[in-house]
Amino acid sequence: MLAKPDGGRLRAGSGWAYEYKLDGYRCCMRVAADGTTVLTSRNGIDFTGEFPTLTGVLDPGRALVLDGEIVACGEDGKVDFGLLQERRGRYQKSRTARREGPFEDVRVRFLAFDLLRLDGKSLLDEPYDRRRALLEELPMPEPDLVTLVPAITFDDLTARGHTPQDVLHQAAGEGYEGLIAKLRSSVYVPGRRPDSWLKHPFIRTQEVVVCGWRPGQRGFTGTLGSLLLGAHDPDTGDLVYIGDVGTGFSQQERADLQERLEGLARRTHPFATTPPREDVAKARWVEPVLVGEVRYRQFTRGAGRLRHTSWRGLRQDKETTEVIAPRNTPAPGPAPEPAPKKITVQAGKRRLTLSNLDKPMFPDGFTKGEVVNYYSHIAPVLLPHLAGRPVTFIRYPDGVGGQQFFEKNAPQGAPDWLRTALLPSTGSRGSGGTISYPLIDDLPALVWAANMAALELHIPQWTVGPGPKRRPPDRLVFDLDPGEGTTIVECCRVAERLYEVLREDGLTPYAKTSGSKGMQVYAGIRTRSADAPSAYAKAVAERFARETPELVTAKMAKSLRPGKVFIDWSQNNPAKTTVAPYSLRGREHPTASTPVSWDEVRACRRAQDLVFTADDVLERVAELGDLFADIGETRAPLPKP
Hints:
By secondary structure, the protein is α+β, with helices and mostly antiparallel strands. It folds into 4 domains: about 5-200, D-amino Acid Aminotransferase, Chain A, domain 1, CATH 3.30.470.30; about 205-320, CATH 2.40.50.140; about 340-460, Alpha-Beta Complex (DNA primase, PRIM domain), CATH 3.90.920; about 475-635, Alpha-Beta Plaits, CATH 3.30.70.
């Protein structure tokens, strides 16, 4: 039995019960009276050998059939679909190589949510309440391996003074994919999507048929660059083109997919209608036999294309015939219920009240809730770069496109636990006064800032402490700003030269995108002079301008910038700030200032090669870690200009 989308309206009323929506492999667990266990996927794949730790766990002395989901859990105990996909990839390789190998490094669990047979008797025609009651009576001796999906009825919520929205926010906080609302009177209908099971997801995902691929370019030369996707038209059943996906892959996934797709090559596209030539340039077509899943932000109604896609992995538990394209028009039904304006969440050791999480912050629909989610997940690598540095916010209370403003002083109403640094004002308009800068050095402070729509975080090249005292600069920065007619590609060529010069001077250079048009090159330094970094950076910038005046300018005048890269050496002035690593930017899409490797800098030939959205950054960090992590450990004496 399958769940049907709820159209954005989470159902309420005494007839409903709610379960967490899981992100794993749907599975039937068949347990014989002697405890012998067989695991099968929705489309008949035998999972028994792949997940041996889940067999023999239940020994109830009664034959039964459970419906549920196999999930993988990270170290924090939260469900992680990416871990499950990675584990499956290793399992498939071990089978091909005919090698046995344990996969105990990835913790898997079977989460049961329905009971279909008991003691040889079918329970399909029993109501949900009856099946659930029988399920809850079953002994679960090893809950770390096999346990129940939490469920609660609307009536129980009401008795506790709660609402379905409270369950929804709890599910979000615990890392689940959404909620399933189930009619308590509903029978179990295999293979159907009736109105009695309704899913309310937090993210939009789509199953896709892999129909082709494009070779990678620049940094991905020699590997798979993107996949061309198809799905069946919901009205005609024809296989139609619905877009492509080029992000979300690990390097290993790109290699594995390419090897697999090369064995499925065909000469022509498999679609019922030929896609526009510009959409499928350089395509290499394959037999449409593989099913995958992507995350996406929008489905265009006219062209029928998925936009802002990110790869989630192959779905070998799904058949290609089951892959149906989203409809071009909204599904009929009641209007969605408005989300609550305020919710309370736990961030570290603090409880915070967040508001208007469904409010779009970016033109592409990225919401404040997604901003908070991004900053919460990127916190482990972002916070070390903010630690001890007074933060200047750029706030967008009405989202990108609305009014924006810089904010240095901690605003009125800031929580009393927020750490601040009272420092003399260095700006001309505030000379002689003081500014109470916020110090964003833990998760609660970061979530608080995100809730204020502080999309951009800017920091100086120095820290404070002990006490309200500015310390000497510990970072050197070259801000590379492309003038009209140039892009980050030209910035990369300048950055390559900076790499060589800084290395010759005994410094270790690091690069990151600005998250907008340009990039920055950094180095950790030791100096006692607040003015020395600007002097050194200016000397290097002017040298580059003399050597290649057709490409570089060291002067700020905008009239001198067209066709050139401006090296802004003044960012080292103690009064100046630069966008922090991993900070979002207030642009059309939720791009972020992203550390990049020098191989990526050298390989960059198109501006889009170094454009990273919030989703991309989280995936990069999961794969590559923090490429800026060692900047504090590689500090070296600043040379004289």
